[in-house]
Amino acid sequence: MAKTFDATSTTDEVLSGINLKRKRILVTGASAGLGVETARSLAAHGAQVVGAARDLAKAEAATAQLRREATSNGGSFELVALDLGDLKSIRHCADALLAKGEPFDVVIANAGVMATPFRHTADGFEMQFGTNHLGHFVLVNRISPLIRKGGRLINLSSAGHRFSNVDLEDPNFVRTPYEPFVAYGRSKTANILFAVAFDRRHRGNGIRSAAVHPGGVQTELDRHVDPILIQRIIEQTNKQLASEGKAPFQLKTIAQGAATSVWAAVVAPADEIGGRYCENCHIGHVVAAHVTISATSGGVRAYALDTNAAEALWKKSEEMVGEKF
Length: 325
Description:
Elements: H1 11-14, E1 24-28, H2 33-43, E2 48-53, H3 56-62, H4 64-72, E3 76-81, H5 87-100, E4 104-109, H6 127-143, E5 147-156, H7 180-202, E6 208-213, H8 227-243, H9 254-257, H10 259-267, H11 270-273, E7 277-279, E8 282-283, E9 286-287, E10 300-301, H12 307-321
Parallel strand pairs: 1-2, 1-4, 2-3, 4-5, 5-6, 6-7, 9-10
Antiparallel strand pairs: 7-8
């Protein structure tokens, strides 16, 4: 009987008894928080992990203990340079991986930014959509020939996808007033839609793709958000929970936040997670547009799994980056 996990499960609990020797896994954003923990837990169970990071010096320091743990458990860890806000860097990284020619069993698109001030990537894209979605869109599609049959793509999304659907008419906020969390919501919806479209294209070759929500975790991701605002949201959430007779909201630990990523990557049945949205080490249920969702509700908005929207996003993304996949 398969083990069951929940919101409190940690990476090591999810991976208990699993040997990942000879599995090769790419994790983006391996310089802090969820990325480091995801890489650590996989390498500690024998996987050969390649971590991608923009700031290699920071990543080297953040992964020193990870390397020691990997070595002592039969795994390995190496770093490659990747700036998801710069198409030149992304293509250089992808070309280097392709030249090396070593296949991957799993790609975990973990890196991202949240609620940034209005900025643009090196190529002129709105920072959150450009980094969180377009950067991974180019990287993953370029290295897709390296993903083994039976492999997986796991995109880090968020319950924040509920803030907004994608806007393919104005993805860079040229005409729309910029709102940090609306932009974040667009990018996180895009992460899910990309997983849906990638899964449809590759499942015939035994490659599946899913999106995951790590849950509420305090990491560097919230560095652009006013701490007072975060506290206010938690207080409002707890008032609502109290009115429902529920326990107060608790942030997950980093090990709990990364658990759904590794569960979807190497534990959950591929056919169950393919093209789906996962949270708390389970498949998230679909919530219709007319249903009100609170800050503590689970589930995924139907628009984020819409196959027509996924195809439209794919086409728009190709137009934006000037490359067809």
